[in-house]
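Lab notebook, design round three. We kept the backbone fixed and only want residue identities now. Task for the bench partner: fill in a sequence for the structure below.
Input structure tokens:
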């Protein structure tokens, strides 16, 4: 008798939710993100549509925002299970609160649904409304249902077999009271704390150590006030940079999904909600500005705002402009050094700032070169997605980047020769050893890029690379010898 019931359930119609169930994201948030980022002033239109009603908002956003169903982050385990059920001859129904326009797009891509129901301007197919439609079509207990949120509780109450996707332990406990035999389907989503940490990119905070350069170049590290100010400035820049990283990932969401590795970023993969991103980046920014206002000079706040403005300009516009994009990246690195000057008031050589521009310009070119080479190696002859470069630009980008790296060594030599620099060391001539070492490092990192082995941001690569670590330790040793040893 048990087997007969099991067999009967196996061929019972299976109704499936879309947002958070078949896909790891929410199409309302996806369309709103696309629409607002096309032009931030569109947020006022969104508010007007929302005031008119949620169904109007969904419909308008679906029409004005392009969603490519093939790029959405699908719950692979759920989709595989549904395809198995479809193969066995089971009737599968897609029923979602997303608009019928988007539901048909996803349904057409997957090709496993016998019927597709979505929201329209007249009805928001969620909760009670979804329950009523399913009862009308299949009767109470005449269907199984797969969902993921509290709005699905009314449907689980009247379905035959209830399936819940990726619930929290607390939610499972609540559901067991309603449906003791509810079945749990896991989508292997990582812990939210891990995803938030990933989107903040704490490994990139190491770049903010540049803020300490003015303090050490002026040999003011023994001054406790300046040291404290610099440490606060470092924390502020970490918060500001993370805010920019979160916003940049939201802006780059569509392009990231085309990329072989960036598609695994938290927002692109659906590991983290888009709504979380829109809450997170303003909080980080406001917190950073609050610390600046309370602990740091006004000049630092101006530099911080310049950094933020250029970062936003880069994310929205400059990143698509050839050459200007890499210049902007180099300036963003140099602004960190200028911020260190503003935080402490210590002077810094013009030559050192110029060196910073050229060395970071070279690293920025490496970043672009690696992206172009990846596209070139797979045989693409088109423009790089979200960038202004073509695969044919590979060699010219390489030559400009190598040249910038070598010029940085020349500028460093001029800095070492500067009278003020020489006065800070007992044996300034020892610092000249840094020049051939830097030449070797720049040559090596470009050679690695040409071989297609530069899979990370070049700064991150340098932090992980054993040779670069040894190079940095050797430079520190040389500078200390020049400072304290008389030859």
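Proposed sequence:
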């Amino acid at each position: 008798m048990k087997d007969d019931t099991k067999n009967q359930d196996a061929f019972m119609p299976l109704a499936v939710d879309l947002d958070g169930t078949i896909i790891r994201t929410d199409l309302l948030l996806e369309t709103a993100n696309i629409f607002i980022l096309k032009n931030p002033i569109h947020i006022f239109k969104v508010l007007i549509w929302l005031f008119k009603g949620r169904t109007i908002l969904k419909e308008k956003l679906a029409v004005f925002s392009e969603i490519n169903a093939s790029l959405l982050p699908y719950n692979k385990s759920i989709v595989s299970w549904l395809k198995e059920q479809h193969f066995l001859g089971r009737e599968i129904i897609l029923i979602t609160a997303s608009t019928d326009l988007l539901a048909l797009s996803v349904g057409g891509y997957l090709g496993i649904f016998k019927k597709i129901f979505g929201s329209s301007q007249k009805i928001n197919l969620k909760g009670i409304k979804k329950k009523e439609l399913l009862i009308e079509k299949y009767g109470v207990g005449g269907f199984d249902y797969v969902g993921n949120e509290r709005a699905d509780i009314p449907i689980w109450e009247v379905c035959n077999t209830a399936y819940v996707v990726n619930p929290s332990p607390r939610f499972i406990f609540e559901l067991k009271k309603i449906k003791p035999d509810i079945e749990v389907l896991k989508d292997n989503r990582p812990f939210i704390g891990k995803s938030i940490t990933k989107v903040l990119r704490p490994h990139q905070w190491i770049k903010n150590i540049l803020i300490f350069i003015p303090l050490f170049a002026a040999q003011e590290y023994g001054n406790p006030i300046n040291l404290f100010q610099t440490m606060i400035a470092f924390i502020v820049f970490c918060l500001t940079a993370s805010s920019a990283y979160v916003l940049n990932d939201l802006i780059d969401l569509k392009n990231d999904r085309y990329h072989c590795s960036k598609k695994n970023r938290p927002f692109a993969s659906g590991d983290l909600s888009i709504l979380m991103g829109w809450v997170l980046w303003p909080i980080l920014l406001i917190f950073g500005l609050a610390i600046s206002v309370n602990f740091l000079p006004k000049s630092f706040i101006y530099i911080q705002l310049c950094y933020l403005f250029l970062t936003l300009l880069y994310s929205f516009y400059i990143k698509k402009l050839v050459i200007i994009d890499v210049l902007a990246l180099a300036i963003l690195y140099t602004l960190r050094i200028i911020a260190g000057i503003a935080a402490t008031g210590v002077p810094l050589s013009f030559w050192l700032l110029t060196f910073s521009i050229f060395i970071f310009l070279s690293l920025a070119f490496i970043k672009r070169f690696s992206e172009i080479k990846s596209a070139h190696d797979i045989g693409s002859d088109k423009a790089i997605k979200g960038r202004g470069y073509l695969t044919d630009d590979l060699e010219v980008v390489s030559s400009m980047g190598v040249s910038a790296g070598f010029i940085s060594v020349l500028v460093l030599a001029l800095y070492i020769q500067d009278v003020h620099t020489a006065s800070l060391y007992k044996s300034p001539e020892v610092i000249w050893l840094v020049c051939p070492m830097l030449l070797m490092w720049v040559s090596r990192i470009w050679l690695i890029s040409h071989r297609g082995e530069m899979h990370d941001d070049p700064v991150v690569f340098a932090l992980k690379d054993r040779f670069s670590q040894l190079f940095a330790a050797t430079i520190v040793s040389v500078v200390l010898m020049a400072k304290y040893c008389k030859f």
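Keep this in mind before ordering anything: The chain has two domains: 2-185, 192-484.
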